[in-house]
Structure to design on (405 residues):
């Protein structure tokens, strides 16, 4: 089932790389871009003052900042009979204060008339993801480029698109909300064990077969579990907020912050466990021998070891028939952790659901003899040069079957 389109949220976007002059605010801490054809395509010819805007800076591991502000679009020569002089103006804030020359500047016009300013480091994974999301194939130059969303590019909100929207703090609506609520009704306001949630996700999609299409199965199962989790989380959080955060001294700020942090941590930990649960189901369906969380050297515990721990610890068992697979729903800079998890295995494998990882990172993975495994549906978010090297889950299973005879 389709779950909305990008045009439900955005009308268009412009993008450019920032020059040194553009990252240095004036003495009054104001930023300004001269109007250009791409900006006029996005914002039109009418003056628009104080447009509500969310400024977002997205960097590497755990690096994100969001503040509310405004931008203004106007013709400084509006009263002149023939001349125009359009400008995009916005005051400085915590996000603009982090901008550096070479960073990439996205200005997206939202469907509700507000805008988003998104700043990313150049050639970063999040930059690649946003370029893919908005249908901007070329690397940004120092002048603005415009992309209309509806018509020219209007991506369906598939797994990859919703992953990136989540990075921006946008949670798409679920067209199957009623069905999802029926499925989680049994849990009330208590989160079940992750394994139970994973089994529910798979059983709710009986038409999906890991044996027929393991790549599709993994994505669909993860997607469904995320839907179920977010619906239950919404109920639990709403109930806790309704109860309020009070202490004898007044508002319980520490309690609120602790609760908020627990929500974020639960999301991250459950996503990783869910991925391993569904991979287990795939391996079982294909009759693959494996060990989950088996211990190797120095108490390291690879997510999956093939064919198992006993074979790994047996010096007479050929190292060429051993395989390890790390599983991380998102990578950021954590992929290097798997390099030391199984010393007997020179060429390691790592599966992720993160779309559009930067070329710098995948090149380093190749140099470290780490093969990235990505479900086939996500390959299109990577550049053509990367796609040649990527392995899908079906290909990984073929490698394991060959080694296990």
């Amino acid at each position: 089932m389709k779950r909305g389109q990008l045009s439900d949220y955005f009308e268009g976007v412009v993008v450019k790389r920032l020059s040194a002059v553009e990252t240095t605010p004036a003495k009054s801490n104001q930023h300004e871009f001269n109007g250009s054809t791409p900006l006029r395509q996005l914002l039109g010819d009418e003056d628009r003052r104080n447009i509500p805007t969310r400024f977002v800076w997205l960097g590497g591991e755990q690096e994100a900042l969001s503040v509310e502000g405004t931008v203004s679009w106007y013709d400084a020569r509006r009263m002149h009979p023939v001349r125009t002089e359009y400008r995009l103006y916005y005051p400085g804030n915590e996000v603009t204060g982090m901008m550096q020359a070479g960073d990439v500047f996205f200005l997206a016009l939202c469907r509700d008339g507000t805008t988003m300013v998104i700043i990313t480091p150049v050639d970063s994974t999040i930059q690649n993801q946003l370029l893919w999301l908005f249908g901007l194939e070329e690397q940004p130059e120092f002048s603005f480029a415009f992309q209309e969303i509806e018509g020219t590019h209007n991506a369906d909100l598939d797994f990859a698109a919703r992953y990136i929207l989540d990075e921006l703090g946008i949670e798409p609506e679920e067209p199957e909300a009623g069905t999802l609520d029926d499925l989680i009704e049994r849990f009330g306001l208590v989160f079940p064990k992750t394994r139970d949630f994973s089994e529910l996700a798979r059983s709710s999609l009986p038409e999906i077969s890991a044996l027929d299409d393991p790549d599709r199965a993994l994505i669909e199962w993860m997607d469904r579990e995320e839907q179920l989790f977010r619906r239950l989380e919404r109920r639990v959080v709403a109930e806790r907020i309704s109860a309020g955060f009070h202490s004898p001294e007044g508002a319980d700020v520490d309690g609120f912050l602790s609760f908020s942090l627990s929500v974020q941590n639960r999301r991250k930990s459950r996503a990783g466990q869910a991925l391993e649960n569904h991979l287990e189901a795939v391996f079982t369906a294909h009759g693959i021998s494996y060990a989950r969380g088996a211990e190797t050297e120095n108490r390291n515990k690879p997510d999956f070891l093939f064919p198992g721990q006993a074979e790994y610890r047996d010096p007479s068992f050929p190292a060429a028939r051993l395989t390890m697979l790390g599983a991380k729903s998102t990578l950021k800079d954590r992929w290097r952790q798997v390099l030391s998890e199984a010393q007997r295995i020179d060429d390691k494998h790592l599966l992720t659901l993160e779309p559009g990882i930067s070329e710098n990172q995948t090149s380093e993975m190749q140099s470290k003899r780490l093969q990235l495994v990505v479900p086939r549906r996500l390959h299109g978010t990577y550049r053509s040069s990367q796609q040649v090297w990527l392995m899908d889950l079906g290909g990984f299973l073929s490698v394991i079957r060959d080694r296990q005879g």
